[in-house]
Predict the 3D structure of the following.
Amino acid sequence: MWILFAFGSALFAGITAILAKIGIRNTDSNVATAIRTVVVLLFSWLMVFLVGSHTTIQDINGKTYLFLGLSGLATGASWLCYFRALQLGDVNKVTPVDKSSIILTMLLAFVILGEKITLIKLIGMIVIGIGTYLMITKKQSEVKATDKRWLIYAALSAVFASLTSILGKIGIQGVESNLGTALRTIVVVIMAWLIVFITGKQHTIKTIEKRGWIFLCLSGIATGASWLCYYRALKDGQASIVVPIDKLSILLTVIFAYIFLKEKLNRKSTIGLFLIVAGTLSLLLTI
């Protein structure tokens, strides 16, 4: 069952990237992140009350709160970097770098969580790594001085995303998955809005157009659905397998980017995407 939740997470995550890209076109990335996080928070707590897990809050121990909180901080940092990268670069370039967190997460799962490393997993990581490299590299004639900024933010997003998964895996063990997702989202909301006020961008909220609000809210709902599926899968499954499946959202993101944003892949990027998908699917053989 956790496999289905992992694929569900990938589906909603793929939709999220496109909706967010459209929503932040004329909006400060930090403000956009903070707004959509509020939507995620409301959606998460709605699910908590629907399943009735709010009655178990008193049973949560200090360790669970600690790791859920740390996971929330890592998520907030990852989001802030990711959506800044989306503002600066193409979805088809930013997303593969962000999804490279797969490799780091798998390594951390082996080291910290003690998950078994197999030959198939090792080959899968290498193939995913090669595919990611092919997708983000450009011809020399296409490179501009400003291009490196999105790459830095995307790389930081990947690092924090890896920490999010490992910390979340540890924290989610002591709590119902929907409740755990809702609790950690509180931390993300606080962090996101703190950044907005520190940078003095709160006044830009009133300049957001109606269209921007719609897509930011839809993006938040898609993110909330992705998170609920993701942490449900992460609670029962292996992080070294759940995370790569979740990152298959890159395939949907590329398809949607082509349809709605008219972003096209060159031959090298297409081969890279194929390798990422193939490497990820090969991990299913280890289940």
